[in-house]
Amino acid sequence: MTLTVFTFDWLPEFPRGFVRDLRVRWILEELGRPYRVDTFPAHPKSQRHHDMQPFAQVPVVQDDDLTLFESGAILMHLGEGTALLPVTKRAEVTQWLFAALNTVELSVMHWVNMVLAERVPEFFGPAPAVEVVAHARQEMEAKLEALQDAIADKAWLAGNFSIADIAMVEVLRVVEAEDALRGFPILVAYVDRATSRPAFQKAMADHMQHWHAADTAQAAATTA
Q1: What pLDDT does residue 158 have?
Q2: How many alpha carbons lie under 13 Å from residue 129 in its C-beta half-sphere?
Q3: How far apart are alpha carbons 149 and 153 in whole angstroms?
């Protein structure tokens, strides 16, 4: 049975390229596993979406009889039994996966959401005080400095490329997009290494094509 990846039917420009279905597309391309895409309306949230994902977020996957949400859990499920989650490195890879999602992403998104509130308050609410944003950035940069030290002498987090690298690079791409990674050259090189992989390139192309097709469909519906 072909696995199904669920994402939103349409989103505005600013989150495109960073919606978390990309993490799932990336691992599936790394594994050479075929998949199809289904969608939920971004607004209003549908009952079907809530039934499959109680918080009405994406991604969600259906893999045979299993419906699964949370990108970290999906990465672990799909990576199980493959070179992306090897038995001999399972604990170490899992450790770094959790570090990506619980430590680094938490601090990154704390800062990024404040930046986005300044830029798109209709989505992210009123912007906080300048000193609050500066403190959040300082906290994020402390995590980035520690991460840079930890990977200074290696190409990937746990030996060979793994699901932990998919998660960590996806978090760091957000920082890079906000032009806040330049002070961390080792992390810039790490992101470049990962995003040069053919699987990432294909996943990103398909991810963006989804939004372009959604724009076309929305335009056609508007003029019909």
Answers
A1: 97
A2: 3
A3: 8
